[in-house]
Amino acid sequence: MTDYLVKALAYNGYVRAYAVDATSTVAEAQRRHDTWNTSSAALGRTMVGALMLGATLKGDDKLTVKVQGDGPAGQIVVDSNGQGDVKGYIDNPHISLPLNEAGKIDVRGAVGTQGFFTVIKDLGLKDPFSGQVPIVSGEIGEDFTYYLAVSEQTPSAVGVSVLVDTDDTIKTAGGFMIQMMPGVTDEVIDTIEARLNETARISNLLDEGQTPEEILQNLLATDDINFLEKMPVQFKCDSSKEKFAKAIITLGADEIQAMIDEDHGAEAVCRFCGDKYEYSEADLEVLKQAALGEA
Ligand SMILES: [Zn+2]
Hints:
binds zinc ion; CBS domain Like; 2 domains; 13 strands; alpha+beta; five-stranded antiparallel β-sheet; 10 helices; Hsp33 domain; six-stranded mixed β-sheet; 36% helix
């Protein structure tokens, strides 16, 4: 089944909510980067959060989420946009830690608890918007929540979860983001918070066969839900041989000549999707001429 995200309004518009099934999307990232279970969960949770944050943008706008903690995972970088596209990587894809005390994947152990959580939004304006907060949890969901509260002044509850199978493949991945709009009553907040506390992780609900719509209905504890949009989400990288060629040209003619003389070609690997792009000596000769033309 295709992954998708739903957007909804509840309680007369005082509560905005998103839920996403990103199972195939995170599974593709796992295959492309050969992530082991703890890395899979850390990267997957960041991708799920970035998808929901991206869903708040308009079509062509895009954002980058960077999680830079002091744990063995290193940096996690995820790009997403208003059209449900997401791509990302984790510096160290091969982390497999013992389960934590709660019997869950130890994402905090991989990410670390010191460092920064940054969101950069490209809204088509001259300067991108950038917000940065310290990492407060390392479990990712709480870090999205803290970022939204502090940097965007939007009280939210964010849940992101990834269920990894024993062979490291992704069983399910998904999440929810519930945002309180100004004027929401304490009663509504209490009702939703109580429901959140008694609800299982989204990845388990997805594993039981629940849909994002059903998950939101349950989390929001009301029938007063207006589903606004259902948007497909997918792993998508826009890298290409042409784009990397432009980067090679900026290295300059001398550097390109060295690639021809020493390596008789070049290979570029996209960090986001792992695709490889090969450049023959003839390709490089063309790029060298372009570099000379730009000099
Ligand atoms: Zn790529």
